[in-house]
Write a structure and sequence with these properties.
This protein is an alpha/beta fold. The chain is built from 17 helices and 18 strands.
Length: about 475
């Protein structure tokens, strides 16, 4: 008999399994213990997991993420916007439960689904970390020239935190933007299945215009820290290119929804499934890296990418003029120069487009992403200086149970393709419970998280997972 017991700041959850299992587990392949990454992607991962030096990751660093949020920072601090994760004996657990208004985004759900699949394919070591699911890695984790890091809750140092986008001065460890890679109907994985169809559109028949589509909001580093080669601050590309379009509509086509709606016009939708019909695609960052850039690499068009300060886990492996053409690099109007260059160097533009697709198909497919997550977690585990245990945490719920809940809960049931993973592994996972047996308890926990969880008390009763 297996009992799942978790107490969250005085709220106790007991799920009892009082009858024998009715699901007989099928044979499963042996979990993998190794895989290979692109050398540049591996290099970044190895360098960033060494940031703790000889001190390693002590429990106080992880505990700092479990402390209640100060009232003044409850809206922005990592203890609200991060999902805490614990892995023990190959089983993944969530060690905090999000309020219902905090877990609906695919940025969180997609990573949880992908992490669970990783745990079923690879042998994961014991480790503990947090996953930041907002647009930017927490600004609190800032590096300094002397090699030290700032974290606003002394005496704690830099906690182990994963994120899908960051700038160099932030201490988070990069993981794939799994939500965009696998959850929506126009996800990377969905478009990967359409590569053959898109490849049947001849290069010569593509419209020789630069197309971009975005909402107008911009990263913090434009109009300030990001400088171009001419020494000037880079303007916000999404705003500037929309304005530039009016005088250069013969070569540049944008669909900035904010501009069109405020001016009374209606933006003509062009789905990602059809944007391969343009020879040139313009990629711009929003509040962080663009979730469309990964997908653009697949479309077989030349990508004009606006330079920025944030990056994703695979960016170091990309090379300008081999996989894409940089813009907003030399001066604010260099996009026009690059479009002209592409038109007069058509064969080279086509070669770059093909190289981008080849890179994405080799290094961003699902198998490659799972490999990356496995390798990152493996390296992170080498930094752990304490014994990871559910007994140390007030909540410790198997991730498979959280995914079963998310797959049924009305606010999240359509947010990702849960059955791709649950259908393979989840419904007879020996670390879980029979289908939906814990649903009502988890639903109550998510919907009724009391305010004292966010604001105090500092000490919480501890949960235990008994086998």
């Amino acid at each position: 008999m297996r009992v799942l017991s978790a107490a969250l700041f005085g709220v106790v959850l007991l799920i009892f399994l009082s009858s024998p299992r009715h699901i007989t587990a099928d044979w499963r392949p042996r979990k993998l213990a190794t895989c290979d990454l692109h050398p540049k992607i591996e290099e970044l991962m190895l360098n960033e997991t060494k940031v703790w030096g000889s001190k390693g990751i002590t429990e106080d660093l992880v505990r700092s993420l479990h402390d209640p949020c100060p009232t003044s920072e409850v809206r922005i601090h990592a203890c609200v916007k991060s999902q805490r994760i614990l892995i023990k004996n190959g089983t993944v657990y969530v060690t905090n439960l999000m309020p219902v208004n905090g877990f609906g985004a695919i940025e969180l759900i997609g990573f949880l689904v992908e992490l669970y699949e990783t745990s079923q394919v690879y042998q994961l070591p014991d480790v503990e970390f947090s996953y930041w699911h907002d647009d930017n890695a927490p600004a609190e984790s800032v590096g300094h020239p002397d090699g030290t890091w700032s974290w606003p809750y002394p005496p704690h140092g830099l906690p182990p935190m994963l994120a899908w986008s960051k700038a160099k001065q932030h201490g988070a460890l990069l993981v794939p933007y799994s939500g965009a890679f696998r959850c929506p109907h126009d996800s990377f994985d969905a478009l990967l299945n359409e590569v053959q169809r898109m490849s049947e559109t001849p290069w010569e028949s593509k419209l020789a215009m630069a197309f971009g589509r975005w909402n107008i909001f911009c990263a913090w580093y434009y109009n300030g820290p990001h400088r171009m080669e001419d020494g000037s601050a880079s303007p916000c590309p999404r705003q500037y290119y929309n304005d530039l379009y009016y005088n250069h509509s013969d070569v540049l086509l944008t669909a900035g929804l904010t501009r069109n709606l405020t001016s009374g016009g209606v933006a003509t939708p062009v789905s990602l499934h059809e944007q391969h019909n343009f020879k040139y695609l313009v990629s711009t960052d929003g509040w962080s890296i663009s979730s469309k850039f990964d997908k653009y690499l697949l479309l077989g068009s030349l990508i004009l990418k606006a330079e920025g300060l944030t990056y994703g886990f695979y960016y170091p492996a990309l090379e300008p003029y081999k996989h894409y053409v940089p813009i907003m690099q030399k001066h604010k109007n260099d996009i026009l120069d690059m479009i002209e260059w592409a038109k007069t160097h058509d064969a080279e533009a086509q070669r770059i487009a093909k190289a981008a697709r080849r890179f994405a198909m080799r290094h961003l497919n699902r198998q490659a992403r799972l490999c990356y997550i496995f390798r990152l977690i493996t390296e992170l585990s080498k930094q752990m200086k304490y014994e990871v245990s559910c007994s140390r945490r007030p909540v410790c719920v198997p991730l498979v149970e959280e995914l079963k809940f998310l797959s049924k809960y009305h606010l999240t049931t359509t947010k990702c393709r849960y059955e791709e993973v649950l259908g393979q592994y989840g419904w007879d996972d020996p670390d879980g419970l029979p289908e939906f047996s814990g649903y009502e308890e988890l639903k109550k926990r998510h919907e009724d998280i009391p305010q004292h969880i966010l604001f105090g008390p500092r000490r919480a009763s501890k949960a235990k997972l008994r086998r």
